[in-house]
Amino acid sequence: MNGPRAGGATASLRWSAWPMVAWGALVWVLLWGGLQPLVLVSALPVALLCWLLTGLPAPVVPARPRLWPGLRALGALLVDLVRSTAAVVVAVVVRGPATRSAVVAVRAPSRSDVAVAVAANRVSLVPGTLVVAVDREADLLYVHCLDVRDEAGVERARARTQHAVDQVLAAFGEPAGRAAGVPADGGRP
């Protein structure tokens, strides 16, 4: 199982790649829609072959995910879903076309693409916010926020979004305080 891989790495199957292969096997079984013996027997070889042929690296999660910060982040997501849904309804019904928006930059400093992807999805799941760009080199997420009327609203949106990102990164074991606020210019030189 050794051979060239994307990025010059070898194709040796590392322990960190098994979750991806297992996920591929589960998708294979679900695509066939049943638990027939041939589907079950072929799932792991097909998933392994797909992993080897596509050259996908195993996802890197540099720290161990933490249960309590993860549960806090999940609880905060549920609260945000309710609160933001009500805020979006008020903004659309009361202000209608006069509703203003802004794009804010928030820090997402993590060595893990998985943690950044989960943080970006968490932000985008909340009504009224949407990640429009991810800049991995600068560790920034650019987030479109609905119903931002003034500079104070921009700062509130940035702080609220930064807090959500920090919660997700903490759930992935990132050290506290790494995601310091971004300057008002969005962190651009």
Automatic annotation (TrEMBL):
Where in or outside the cell is it found? Cell membrane
- Signal peptide as annotated in the record: none
Principal place where this protein is found? membrane
Q: Which InterPro entries match?
A: Cation_antiport_E
Q: Which domain of life is it from?
A: Bacteria
Residues crossing the lipid bilayer are 12-32, 38-61, 73-94
Bilayer topology: Multi-pass membrane protein
Q: What keywords are annotated for this sequence in UniProt?
A: Cell membrane, Membrane, Transmembrane, Transmembrane helix
**Does the keyword Transmembrane belong to this entry?**
yes
State the family named in the UniProt similarity comment for this chain: Belongs to the CPA3 antiporters (TC 2.A.63) subunit E family.
Record PANTHER family: NA(+)/H(+) ANTIPORTER SUBUNIT E1, NA(+)_H(+) ANTIPORTER SUBUNIT E1
| Protein name in UniProt | Na+/H+ antiporter subunit E
